[in-house]
Queue: 3 jobs
Job 1
Amino acid sequence: MKDDDIITLTTANGEEVDFIQIAGIAYRGKFYAILQPVELLDGMDDDEALVFRVKRGFFGKEHFEIETNDAIIDAVFKEYNRLLDEQS
């Protein structure tokens, strides 16, 4: 893993958390990133990942928002698994 593979996000309380991007998925006209924390977060298993909605902010900078809608999360993982199956 190289440093440029790491995405550092800042939590609401100012804590920085490093993630590895597993995949980028387009779903219903929006873009989502599946990210896995470099160091496991409390309550997470080592095979779990989180879904973030990616938005373009000021000056084209990407802004990541944690997705909380279970239906969207399920759909993004379903699309990810479909794409993996196509590559096999």
Job 2
Amino acid sequence: MNMNTVNSMEQSVEDTYLKAYRGGFTSTMRWPDLDAFWERLRAQADDQWYVYAVGEAPPQAPASREQLLTFIEEIDALLHREHEEDYCGIVYADNLEQPTYIKIFDPNNLGVTCGFSENPPLPGWILSRIKPVELESALNPPKNRQRWWQQIFS
């Protein structure tokens, strides 16, 4: 495989992941909604889910079923402990019945998770069936080229 093919494949994976990231999502608004969602996810759990802590290096392989189930238990406990509201509203899925991409926002870094914001916060964690890319750099590429460009025409 030549370098252009490798770069093209990497770009395709990144494009697929970012397209899914920017897709439509539905929130689990109430705690009972989240509980029901976790039950459905547990029933569908397999070893095809990537568990990505945004800000860390993306995983290179999917989690085992056991790792996924442990993550669900731990993140559920964390959300209940640290999100002191009578509503949930911080777990979003592309499909609440058959999810393939789930964003979980950190209760300590919510900002504007719904509605419109120029700089919405990144999720704290993402579960996906698509191999993740490093989200921070993919969404906010280095500004050195932009600065270079601006210097030429300023």
Job 3
Amino acid sequence: MKLIIAIIQPSKVEAVKEALNKVEVFRLTMIDCRGFGRQKGQSEMYRGHEVTVQLLNKVQLQVAVNEDFVEPTVNAIMEAGRTGPDGRIGDGKIFILPLEDCIRIRTGERGPEAI
């Protein structure tokens, strides 16, 4: 089992959800978050003054999957989350973490069956 954490642009959420549905991944958690990477924020005009926004709006997706779904899930997020054919700085990151256990609260099932 793996926990896939993806940080993506808010504008890509619907495309990523559709791509995940196509590879039969129907469960995910979304968290609104703020941060920056290599793009180091951006400048915006606010009431006639240029303001540098250090933390940009992002969306964090958390998807717990069994081993067979890791690559299809990652590929779906990469393809749908990428801006244009080559991507751009700020498109996001994907982290794949080992998932020691999973428990379904309703039934008490554990492990891969609980996902």
